[in-house]
Write a structure and sequence with these properties.
5-stranded antiparallel sheet, 16 helices, alpha+beta
């Protein structure tokens, strides 16, 4: 193909030849010798020049139009800013303003470090040093929006030089990658959740269909990701083992609560279940369920319990003998003793009592946990039992200087219960009330007939239970920040044993307390008690 220059020359030669031929025919004499030749020479030089110029101008216009379109597209796609040699912003495009939330007047003339958080401003100086050496810089740069939120951009920053070759600033081209980073983070989170050892279920609250199961949950239900979506939990578990979990989910919505936690047995394994209700639009939502296998913990607790039980049995007999021997010495069976010796023996005797109490409590817990504690239901006078518990606490009454008032015990109150276990509960509640009452205060014991139930309450005027510690009040070895076990005594097991005994007799136990205003512990027992069953975990009422 002929080039544009060759074509222009050919056209020029053609026009010159045509001129020469025409003027030769049209002219005669002297002019015919000069004009044709001179004109042909002029045309041969001028025509190619004009043609080439027009061609170049046309191409330049096309190039400039194309470049303008490219720059316009580039400007709309990327965030662009120009920085001078002092590090101040001299130009920013609309895309950058839109991304950062600044106005043009906020940025022009300001240091480029305005776009960086304090911790990230070092990046700006590192980039500047790189550009000073004449090198471009590429990488991820965090930027600070006007509202303080941080966004991330992928940036290419190139140095600018003046005609003399001196560094005069830089131009930065940035692409927002915040959404990409968030997607990557979400993907990593999803991968982590999928590989967790604990079950994770996400269930739609309306139809109770499964939205998500991680790998552990898939293995539990013997299913895979392509099979379970939109299937109900009941379809995945025809055995019905998940019924308790689903019932707890429904109870959350019915009670207006958002979280629930309990322990149960699921598909043959002891598990800890945590449920969170995530509210959606128009009363819809999802249940986020986390299930942890606690088989190992349960087995360890069994082994620990067995060890403690064995040790306790082995300790009780020698301790009883030691206490008996000290009792004989204190009764002068071996003759009179010096006052100093008697004082030391009394201390040892009291501590032997305390050790035996601890051992008995531990053995009781062990029996209750195994469902082996004997419950012997008899017909008794409930009023007489309350008065007996009061008399048994007379020593504490004198020690702490607290009075007691009984109501509801004025007349006989026939009742069926285990008198020994009932007294054990009352003694523990009264002991705590005495220990935490103020000197000169009063403890109120109230017995009420509530139809099918009998309600017994013990109220003190002490310092109350802190709200943030009420959740552990019935736990083993619980110790409140405002208690002083070393000074007031106690094992930290009493309330846990009370709860187990009451529940094992078919009743419930709870408390009401406000810090600084005392506490009321109460338990309710059915008038008709069935045979004792294994201990179950019941909700405990807590009031602030």
């Amino acid at each position: 193909m002929m080039s544009s220059t060759a074509l222009a020359i050919t056209c020029g030669c053609g026009v010159a030849t045509g001129w020469y031929s025409l003027t030769q025919l049209a002219l005669s004499g002297g002019p015919a010798q000069v004009i044709p030749i001179f004109g042909a020479i002029v045309l041969a030089g001028t025509v190619p020049t004009v043609i080439i110029k027009k061609t170049v101008e046309s191409r330049f216009r096309d190039f400039r139009h194309s470049m303008s379109q490219r720059l316009d597209a580039f400007d709309k796609h990327a965030c662009i800013n120009i920085v001078d040699e002092t590090g101040n912003l001299t130009e920013v495009n609309e895309k950058l303003l839109e991304l950062t939330g600044y106005d043009r007047t906020d940025l022009i003339g300001q240091p480029v470090t305005l776009l960086y958080n304090d911790l990230d401003s070092k990046i700006a100086f590192d980039i500047r040093e790189n550009l000073h050496s004449g090198k471009s810089w590429k990488g991820e740069t965090p930027l600070r929006r006007k509202d303080g939120r941080e966004i991330f951009t992928e940036s290419t920053i190139m140095p600018l030089f003046d005609p003399a070759g001196n560094w005069s600033g830089s131009i930065s081209v940035r692409t927002d990658i915040s959404s990409t980073n968030e997607l990557v983070a979400e993907r990593h989170t999803a991968q982590t959740l999928y590989e967790l050892r604990d079950d994770i279920w996400i269930i739609d609250s309306g139809m109770e269909t499964v939205s998500y199961l991680n790998r552990t949950a898939e293995n539990r239900f013997n299913t895979c990701r392509k099979d379970y979506p939109k299937r109900s939990v009941s379809d995945l578990d025809p055995s019905g083992d998940t019924a308790e979990v689903l019932a707890s989910c429904r109870a959350l919505v019915a009670d207006g609560k958002t979280t629930s936690r309990f322990e149960t047995v699921l598909m043959g394994a002891p598990v800890d279940v945590s449920i969170k209700f995530l509210t959606g639009a128009e009363n819809s939502g999802r249940y986020l369920i986390l299930i942890s296998d606690i088989s190992e913990r349960v087995e360890q607790e069994k082994q620990k319990s067995a060890f403690i039980s064995t040790v306790s049995h082995e300790l009780r007999s020698p301790l009883t003998s030691i206490k008996g021997a000290m009792g004989l010495l204190l009764s002068n069976s071996a003759g009179d003793l010096p006052d100093r010796a008697i004082s030391l023996l009394e201390i040892a005797h009291r501590n032997a009592d305390r050790l035996i109490l601890i051992i008995n409590d531990i053995l009781d817990l062990d029996k209750l946990a195994d469902g082996e504690m004997d419950i012997e239901i008899k017909e008794v006078d409930l009023s007489e039992l309350i008065r007996e518990a009061d008399q048994a606490s007379a020593v504490l009454q004198q020690r702490f200087g607290v009075q007691i008032e009984l109501t509801g015990t004025e007349s006989a109150f026939p009742f069926n219960t285990d008198p020994n276990r009932f007294l054990q509960v009352m003694t523990n509640l009264l002991s705590n009330a005495y220990k935490f009452s103020k000197p000169g205060g009063t403890i109120f014991v109230d017995v009420r007939d509530e139809g099918e139930l009998v309600r017994v309450s013990v109220t003190d005027e002490g310092q109350g239970i802190p709200l943030d510690e009420q959740h552990k009040i019935f736990s083993r070895f619980s110790d409140m920040t405002n208690s002083d076990r070393a000074l007031k005594g106690g094992t930290g097991l009493g309330l846990n044993i009370c709860k187990a005994i009451v529940e094992n007799m078919g009743g419930t136990i709870g408390f009401e307390s406000a810090e600084g205003k005392g506490a009321r512990f109460f338990f309710c027992l059915p008038k008709v008690q069935s045979a004792p069953s294994s201990i179950k975990t019941l909700d405990v009422k807590r009031c602030a």
